[in-house]
Amino acid sequence: MRSARRRISRILSAALLICLLTLITLNLPFYAGSTLGPTLSWRLEGARLNIVRRPSQNPEHFYVAINSEPLRWNFAAHYYSTSDWFIRIPLWMPLVAVATCVIFSWWPAPRRLDPLRCSRCNYSLVDLTPGTPCPECGKKP
Ligand SMILES: [Zn+2]
Fold first, then answer.
1. What is the pLDDT of residue 2?
2. How does pLDDT run across 81-102, given as a tens digit for each residue?
3. Sign of torsion, CA 41 31 79 57?
4. Do 27 and 45 meet the contact criterion of CB atoms below 8 Å apart?
């Protein structure tokens, strides 16, 4: 149960990391975006996700276009009113969070000390009188 959850988190975090790295790499030559309803739009450009709400916007279906801008790393946001704001989230921010999850989920788990197994050779010490040396390697408890 515990190892299954650990395996899922390993696979998910690694897949997310690959997706983010792919997005950032694809954002070098391309940008993409669309409008989400009459006032909201998004655009992935220069390794930043721009979400913009304006009182009125020209409707745009999903588009991909050639990018000539460099990658941008800074966070930016501005709030004018509830119907007029923008936020620009650089992709390195979720990348750092996901990379941290990858490191933690792939880090080898510490070997738990089982009092019923020899700490040197892992031989089962069940049914032995406590204090008896390990019959396999002779290590005293
Ligand atoms: Zn032993």
1. 63
2. 999 999 999 999 999 999 999 9
3. negative
4. yes
Distance CA 58, CA 41 (A): 10
- CA dist 36 and 57 (Å) reads 10
| Alpha helix (H) residue ranges in the chain | 2-26, 92-106
C-alpha 1 to ligand 1 mean position (Å): 29
Average pLDDT estimate for 32-53: 94
Q: How far is the CA of 123 from the centre of ligand 1 (A)?
A: 5
Distance CA 38, CA 59 (A): 7
Question: What is the structure's pLDDT at 33?
Answer: 96
CA of 120 to the centre of ligand 1 (A): 5
Q: Is the pTM of this model over 0.85?
A: no
51 φ, ψ to 5°?
Answer: -115, 125
With tokens 């309803």, the residue in question is 37
Average pLDDT over residues 18-22: 95
Largest CA distance in the chain: 81
